[in-house]
Each structure stands twice: as structure tokens, then as C-alpha cells.
Design goal:
By secondary structure, the chain is of the alpha+beta class. The chain has one domain (14-108): Arc Repressor Mutant, subunit A (Orthogonal Bundle). Helix content is 53%, strand content 12%. It is built from six helices and three strands; from the N terminus they run H-H-E-H-H-E-E-H-H. It has helices at 9-17, 22-28, 36-42, 48-60, 82-100, 102-106, and strands spanning 34-35, 64-69, 75-80. The chain has a three-stranded antiparallel beta sheet with strand order 1-3-2. The longest helix has 19 residues, at 82-100. The radius of gyration is 16 Å and the shape is globular.
Length: 114
């Protein structure tokens, strides 16, 4: 496994958070363990395949814990680790900034910015 170096803390944080969905998944897990189907409903627009990939990446990064219950039917729950909770806490002010400026951000003609 290749070790990565970062230029600053923001670079490291964005690497862990990379992608469109991880912040929404973290938000969905903030109140406790959630099953896969509940996560899928809590993150509208995400495909099953992408959710699985994002959950694997987040588990590898140590942001979440995957608990498998050996029963019929099988049951799997996802929950935040202490590391994941700390990232969720750090993202709180960013979410507040987004809420405060959402109207302005929604008004940006993103298709023209390219």
C-alpha cells in the first residue's frame, strides 16, 4: 500500500471526504447505527453500487464500523467510529455555512461555470 503525504490539513480532510456522497452518509449515521436499506433511503439519488463502494472506502478509512449479525435474514448495520464522529463534528460549521448561503449557491449557473 502506497503511503500518501499531504500539503496541509485541508488536503488530508478532503481526501477522506472525497466524493459527492460521503458527507451525506456521515450525516445519515450521526444518530446511531443504520441498516443498508435505511441508508439508501436517507441518501436520495445514490445507487446501490455507489453506496456499497462509498461504505467500503469509509470503512477502510476508519470512519465507520460495519456490524454483521449472523441471522436469517442477514442483518448488517453501519455506525460511525470515534474518528467518523470527529469528522462529522468538524463538518458542522461547513454545513451551517451551506445552510446560510444555500439560496445564493442554488442561484449559481453551474452549467455555465465550466
Amino acid at each position: 500500500m502506497k503511503k500518501r503525504t499531504f500539503t496541509c490539513g485541508l488536503d488530508a480532510a478532503i481526501t477522506v471526504m472525497g466524493g459527492k456522497w460521503k458527507g451525506l452518509i456521515l450525516f445519515a449515521l450521526q444518530d446511531g447505527p443504520v441498516r443498508f436499506g435505511e441508508l439508501r433511503r436517507a441518501v436520495p439519488g445514490i445507487s446501490e453500487r455507489v453506496l456499497i463502494l462509498q461504505l467500503r472506502e469509509m470503512e477502510t478509512a476508519g470512519l465507520l464500523h460495519r456490524e454483521v449479525y449472523h441471522q436469517v435474514p442477514p442483518k448488517v448495520e453501519y455506525s460511525l467510529t470515534e474518528f467518523g464522529h470527529s469528522l462529522n463534528t468538524a463538518m458542522g460549521p461547513l454545513g451551517e455555512w451551506g445552510e446560510e448561503h444555500m439560496d445564493r449557491i442554488e442561484a449559481i449557473p453551474w452549467d455555465q461555470a465550466r
